[in-house]
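ERR on first pass: missing label on line 2. Operator R.T. fixed the label and resubmitted. Corrected input:
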Amino acid sequence: MLTNKHLKYESQKIGMNYFRVAIVLFGAQLLFGLVCAIQYLWPGFLFETLDFNIARILHINALVVWMLFAMLGSVYYLLPDEAGRDVVGAGLGKLGFWVLTAAVTVVVLVYLFIQIGPGKESTIWFINEGREYIEAPRWADIGIVAIVLIFYYNVFFTYIKGRQTGILTVLVADLLALAGLYLAGVFFTDNISMDQFWWWWVIHLWVEATWEVFVGALAAYGLIKILGAKREIVEMWLWIEVLLLFGSGILGLGHHYFWIGTPEYWWEIGALFSSLEPVPLVAMFVHVLYDWGKEQGHKEAVEGEGAHAVSNSPAMAWIALNAFGNFLGAGIWGFFHTLPQVNIYTHGTQFTAAHGHLAFFGAYATILIAMMYLGVQGAYGIKKMTMTFKSKMAIGLITFGVIGMTVALTIAGYEQVLVERAELGAGWDAYFIAQNLTWMKQAMGWRLVMGVITFIGFVYLLWDLVTIGEVEEAKEANELQSAVA
Amino acid sequence: MQSTIVLPNLAPNEFLGIFVVATLVLVFGVGYAGLVTLAKMGYVKRAWQYVAYLFWLLQVYVLYDLSLRIHSSVFTQKILIVAMIAYLFAPHLYFYLVDQSAKRYESALENRKEES
Amino acid sequence: MSNKSASVWTSIRFWRRSAAWVTATAVVLLMWLTFDTVKQISMGSDEDLKKGIRKRIPAPTVINYHIDYKFSKKRGHEVPVIGQKEPFFGKEWSPKEAAALLHKGKLTFQAKACIDCHTALGNGAYYAPDLTKAWLDPKWNNGTMTAMIGKKTKEEAMAEFLMHPDKYPTHGRMMPNLHITKDEAIALVAFLKHMSSIDTNGFPRNFSINAKRLKGGTNAH
Ligand code: HEM
Ligand code: HEM
Ligand SMILES: [Fe+2]
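pass 2 clean. output:
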């Protein structure tokens, strides 16, 4: 993680920089998540010092930002491989990286030390926009748009001047939509319904449409790179994924328009299209698994038992986990509460949090971590990277921790639905009666325990990313020597 | 516009059943997709493929049960049927396409060697 | 790469085109629905209120009216009911004043990041009660809070609570002092009252039904 010595292209070096910041922000995300989880159990913890809302803003903004960093990093990293040439504006790309990193630092410091402001426009501009996930103040929005324009310029012209593979075509189109959608979140209105209507354009059309397609493209690249899967098949399949994902996900947006003041017809539209959203996720799951098996079988047939098709086993493990986690967290847990008959009860409960955690982790964290392992492999010039003990601890503990948190939150959500919503019909007292039952308290306790386990897994991950390059490099050098001798 | 979806009240004692049945939908769903893929890949015996279809059938059944438990209207039931059929076919579409295109792009093997 | 015997199903071109068409169709449909929805969720006018025309999101002057949340047989769920005029902080607010107040309220709502502890219209954080119908909550209406805070009207009690929530805790999990000024507090209460008048298709369902069981009367009051 700490070297670029074997990277031929400037673009890939920029990519590695993005990965480095991303992994640090991931750690910060987890720490602030732990603060929130502690406050659920001991509300006095950091009360009026770092209140729940501020810790939560840091938790979810660090989440969004580390993922965006890792996404930019992934694109810069795969760009030369795909286009067959270096990025057109390397200097500009570097500048963009440093400016973005500096801007993020300032935003974080302001969240930490200024936190909130008076009810005036200036607060929205300079401190905090107060809209979930996209709390970054307006000045930062404008900065982000500028940096993204630089980034897009780089991707687009590298694509035009280089080889125009199917993967890049999908990425170029998808990134434009992804960046454009951000603009739907950059305005102020007094009308809370209108506010949330457009807010979901950003959140839903990101995570259930454009980001998913992005992940499809990354998985396609990963399969070709790691397994040597056949490009034509992978790319054909990518287009089918685009069809299924956009075909269901765009109008699936309706599942957020059941209760925010929007008309009833969204009940039908939301139910219909979002029920179909798990279908592409199943397709992606089957795809990764099947290709892995096929290439492995092919390799064994040609080179005999024991031959390994995988050139980077930690990355492949995370990609396989991605295929499964996406299907489970987004597809299954999402489907659980997507029908209006169910959602009227589960809307805005711990159940939503259960789905949010498993989906974000399964669909995005996993594959972005896989891309980081690919980056390390390239940076150290390793031919065949295998899992170390630390890689295994990282993937094992993080997965166990996140699934554990999800189960705890699902139980909490069930209890909340039953008591607060069905039995008591929401309201202030109903809310606290449900919060104070033993089931809820125990679930929150387990969430914290599982969160700590997740964090320990993260420490292994960080440690592994920093050290695995040298370990594997030395191992290959040794093997080479003994082969020569 | 008159809504085709109605949202009747659920009694508190109906929730446990809903929760359990919804979990079964999950279990059978994962079972179907996983088994059918593993069988096609040859990691498990071919016969498991039939077990996979059995899982799918069970999934359809529990989903139907779920739709009754949430007192859903005909519209929602239709949606669920469409989703289940799409779910049955999605993996097969993939297997079919991979086989077909493997034949078609055999010649492309050369390109691949160059690249790596 | 072309191969005469190959079927269309394995053609990349075919799938690329299909993907483009499906996406374009979905986008067009979404645009069309968006035009209709945006029209329906734009705020109504003061005239609408005076004439009794129901808008999904009423004008800011709805703060001058009594608001309730009652079961509608026709819709099959609860809907907000806008009743007689009632003073808000002891006066009737002109359309201009009411709009300015709501503007300040929404700004403060964002500036203090309320949404990262509470949910509003069910979206946000799950650390504190949903605020969608907070204005109608039995605790504000049955005398509990007014007595505890020592104010005559619920709007005054709410404003005082928002300014010093740590002085009036009712649960171990307290709301912190967010340094809200008097003006901001009044504006926030207006924002909350306005939000309670939004037609949310019956969310939250059976609002505070426990209060009804204990006290009789409508669910909300
Ligand atoms: C990778 C994909 C996905 C991610 C990352 C994701 C993430 C999230 C998150 C974070 C929320 C909570 C938003 C908030 O803070 O209010 C949410 C809500 C929701 N998601 Fe997803 N989701 C994904 C896919 C899906 C799918 C495929 C479905 C349906 C089949 C779905 C159904 C829902 C529903 C119905 C809600 C609203 C919950 C409520 O009413 O409170 N999601 N999602
Ligand atoms: C150390 C482990 C973690 C802990 C203790 C933790 C804790 C929390 C807490 C307490 C909340 C606030 C929920 C609320 O409003 O009541 C939250 C929100 C959230 N967290 Fe985490 N978290 C952890 C890891 C993660 C990871 C790994 C991800 C995703 C990759 C994630 C994604 C989210 C999302 C998307 C939300 C917003 C959910 C929603 O609004 O529905 N968290 N987390
Ligand atoms: Fe969604």
